[in-house]
From TrEMBL:
InterPro entries: AAA+_ATPase, ABC_transporter-like_ATP-bd, ABC_transporter_ATP-binding, P-loop_NTPase. The keyword Transport applies. This is ABC transporter-related protein. PANTHER family: ABC TRANSPORTER ATP-BINDING PROTEIN, ABC TRANSPORTER ATP-BINDING PROTEIN NATA. It comes from Halorubrum coriense DSM 10284. GO terms for molecular function: ATP binding; ATP hydrolysis activity. Belongs to the ABC transporter superfamily. The lineage of its organism: Archaea, Methanobacteriati, Methanobacteriota, Stenosarchaea group, Halobacteria. It holds the Pfam family ABC_tran. Signal peptide: none annotated. Residues 11-28 have a biased composition (Basic and acidic residues). Keywords: ATP-binding, Nucleotide-binding, Transport.
């Protein structure tokens, strides 16, 4: 049965290996109906001038054993989409099938193997120890906790919680509590889990640990994961596929590799104390500027300039009196892809009229 868990705010960002770069093959069992199938889903909130279309005619399929990331700015509709998929929010239009079961035909069957960690919702029992929480949530998922004790040990071990197994959750740090929330979601052996911002509030090391465990669960145990995050590192490291949402609509749906490949272009980042509005405007006359960071020390400008254009760029900078402190090539990341597709950064609020 779907259950929600706590997720804290204020996540770190750091970089580690992507699954694409590792060349992993997920052992997804693609036989049988998909884990999740959403068709024409629409959800509006409010009425008249106040009406907001949070999810606007969204269709997507999540194959068993795959890890799909939902990426989008604040208010893009990620949480509403997840809540509709979980049956917590009833859509105005469209259908949701979980492992082939239309949720309108019976929630019990549809959500038997589903669990979730939703932002802001309380989950664990703070008076119970970490292990007691895992046993409790396994029990309410209909699983004999003794039969999954080894799984719980493995989860605690992988999430660096083993030495806290007998500690009451209230005595843990916020980041540890969040890892316990995740462990609780996974405690009953759900086959499809929805994770809304799982790394928010985690320190760099904990976020890395959590990502590694999610990837292991997908690759080794065939767990199907739908994860929403603003944290590009998490999306890149954990997901096979990314669905980008903006203003309630899907603006891209593809593998991480394909999205990054499509955005492939040769860009260079130039750092110089001489970069100011005037010199940047001069560069813009002859080059496509990808990004300007005036807060950086020294300021930087990222310019699309592959091949011979790089020589043109250095000539133009010299002519403009810009002394280059540093110049390096820049690989596109998902943030850049998102920016290209929507004109909005994924960690910025959604813009536009949604009525
Ligand atoms: N219960 C509600 N009542 C009214 N409006 C809502 C409700 N829930 C969501 N919305 C609106 O629907 C839109 C989509 O919100 P949603 O929370 O799904 O976005 P999100 O992509 O998850 O954003 P965030 O990244 O900030 O969590 C927003 O404009 C939001 O204000």
């Amino acid at each position: 049965m779907a259950r929600s868990a706590t997720s804290a705010r204020g996540g770190p960002r750091e970089r580690d290996e992507t699954n694409a770069a590792r060349g992993e093959e997920s052992p997804a069992d693609r036989s049988g109906p998909p884990a999740l199938s959403v068709d024409g889903l629409t959800k509006r909130f409010g009425e008249g001038d106040e009406a907001v279309t949070a999810v606007d005619d969204v269709s997507l399929t999540v194959e068993r054993g795959s890890v799909v990331g939902l990426l989008g700015p604040n208010g893009a509709g990620k949480t509403t989409l997840i809540k509709c998929a979980l049956g917590i929010v009833i859509p105005d239009a469209g259908s949701v099938r979980v492992f082939g079961n239309d949720v309108r035909d019976g929630r019990r069957a549809a959500y038997a193997d589903v669990d979730a960690m939703l932002e802001g919702a309380r989950n664990d029992y703070w008076r119970l120890t970490v292990r007691e929480n895992l046993r409790y949530f396994a029990t309410i998922s209909g699983v004999d906790p003794d039969s999954v004790a080894a799984r719980h040990d493995r989860l605690l071990d992988r999430l660096d919680l083993a030495d806290k197994a007998d500690t009451p959750v209230r005595d843990l740090s916020r980041g540890m509590k969040q890892k316990v929330s995740l462990a609780s979601v996974l405690a009953g052996g759900a086959e499809l889990v929805f994770l809304d911002e799982p790394t928010l509030g985690l320190d760099v090391e904990s976020a890395r640990t959590l990502r590694a465990e999610l990837r292991r669960l997908a690759v080794e145990e065939g767990l199907t994961i739908v994860v929403s995050s603003h944290d590009m590192t998490t999306i890149e490291a954990v997901c096979d596929r990314v669905v980008m949402l903006s203003n309630g609509r899907i603006v891209a749906d593809d593998s991480v590799e394909a999205l990054l490949g499509a955005a492939d272009r040769d860009a260079v980042r130039v750092a110089s104390p001489d970069l100011n509005a005037e010199t940047v405007a001069g560069v813009r006359e002859s080059f496509e500027i990808v990004d300007v960071d005036r807060e950086a020390r020294p300021p930087t400008v990222t310019v699309a300039a592959g091949g011979d254009r790089l020589y043109d760029l250095t000539d133009a900078l010299r002519a403009a009196g810009v002394t280059v402190s540093d110049i390096r090539t820049v690989q596109p990341d998902l943030e850049e892809v998102f920016l290209e597709r929507t004109g909005t950064a994924p960690d910025a609020p959604s813009g536009g009229d949604r009525r």
